[in-house]
Write a structure and sequence with these properties.
single chain, nine-stranded mixed β-sheet, alpha/beta
C-alpha cells in the first residue's frame, strides 16, 4: 500500500512526524508532501495567482509553499509518477477539528482533495484541552490507536464521496475508553472573535482567535465524544445542500424567473 501524507501545520510540525510513524506502521511506501509553513485555517484554498515552489527534502519527501490542497494535487498529479497513492492521511493536527470548524480546517481540506482525486482519505487531529504553546498535547494517543483504526476502516471500505475525520481526545492512551462513530456537531455559541489592538506607531490591527468556551453537545456528536474521552470517527462529505430547504423553496420558486415589480415597495420600506 502506498500512503501520501500531508498536513496544515507545516513540514516541520510534530504532528506530521507522528503521522509519518502512523503511516509507516501500515506500509513502507510513504510519501510526504506538506506545506512549507503553517496553513491552519486555509480550508480548501487553492493557489491560483502565484507560482508554487517545491523543495525536495529527502527521498519521497517534499515541502510546498502552498496550501494542503495544493500539496495533495501536486503530489498526485506531478510528484508521484509511477503509482497513485492508495490512501491519503492528513494531520495529525495540533488541536481538534470538530463541529462547524471542519469547514475551516486545512487538515480536513487535505483529505477532501484526496477524495476528490478518487483516493480514500482520512483527516486526523489530536485534541487539546487548552490551545496554548505550552499545553501538553498527547500525540502518543493518536499514534497508539490510529494505525489499528485506519487499517480496520481501510479493509472495510467506505463511500468514495466521504472522508473520515478522526479526532483523538486530549488524554493519554491509557485513559481512552472507546472509539465512537459520530455525526458532526454544532456548537451552541459562536466561538470566533476579533481582538482589536494597537501597534507601537499607534496604528490599529486585528487578531482573529477562538474563545475556547465549552458547549453542550448532543449525544452522538463528535464534540460529545471528545468531551467524554472517546475517539471520534465522523464520515464527512462536501455536499452542503440542505434537503428540506430545497423542498420548501420549490413551493415558492420555479419555472420562469420572477422579475422585480417597480410598483412594489423596496425591502425595508413600509407598505401603504
Amino acid at each position: 500500500m502506498r500512503i501520501l501524507i500531508t498536513n496544515d501545520d507545516g513540514i516541520n510540525a510534530e504532528g506530521l512526524a507522528a503521522l509519518e510513524r502512523i503511516a509507516r506502521a501500515l506500509t513502507d511506501d510513504v510519501w510526504v508532501v506538506a506545506p512549507e509553513v503553517e496553513q491552519s485555517g486555509a480550508s480548501r484554498a487553492l493557489t491560483l495567482s502565484d507560482p508554487l515552489r517545491v523543495r525536495r527534502m529527502g527521498d519521497q519527501r517534499f515541502a510546498v509553499d502552498g496550501t494542503p490542497t495544493d500539496c495533495v494535487l501536486l503530489a498526485v498529479q506531478e510528484l508521484i509518477k509511477d503509482k497513485t497513492p492508495d490512501l491519503v492521511l492528513s494531520g495529525v493536527n495540533r488541536g481538534q477539528n470538530l463541529a462547524e470548524d471542519v469547514t475551516l480546517s486545512g487538515t480536513v481540506a487535505g483529505a477532501i482533495e484526496g477524495m476528490a482525486l478518487g483516493i480514500p482519505s482520512v483527516a486526523l487531529s489530536q485534541s487539546l484541552a487548552l490551545f496554548h504553546d505550552e499545553a501538553r498535547i498527547h500525540f502518543e494517543t493518536a499514534e497508539a490507536f490510529a494505525p489499528g483504526i485506519i487499517a480496520h476502516l481501510f479493509k472495510a471500505g467506505w463511500s468514495d464521496q466521504v472522508i473520515l475525520n478522526l479526532n483523538f481526545p486530549p488524554v493519554s492512551p491509557e485513559a481512552v475508553t472507546e472509539v465512537e462513530v459520530t455525526r458532526q456537531g454544532f456548537r451552541d455559541s459562536f466561538q470566533r472573535h476579533v481582538d482589536k489592538r494597537t501597534d507601537l506607531r499607534g496604528r490599529d490591527y486585528y487578531w482573529m482567535g477562538f474563545k475556547g468556551q465549552m458547549s453542550k453537545p448532543e449525544e452522538g456528536t463528535d464534540l460529545r465524544a471528545i468531551y467524554e474521552g472517546r475517539i471520534s470517527v465522523t464520515p464527512l462529505h462536501i455536499d452542503l445542500t440542505h434537503r428540506q430547504s430545497v423542498h420548501d423553496l420549490k413551493a415558492v420558486l420555479g419555472g420562469a424567473p420572477p422579475r422585480l415589480d417597480p410598483s412594489e415597495p423596496r425591502s425595508g420600506t413600509p407598505r401603504g
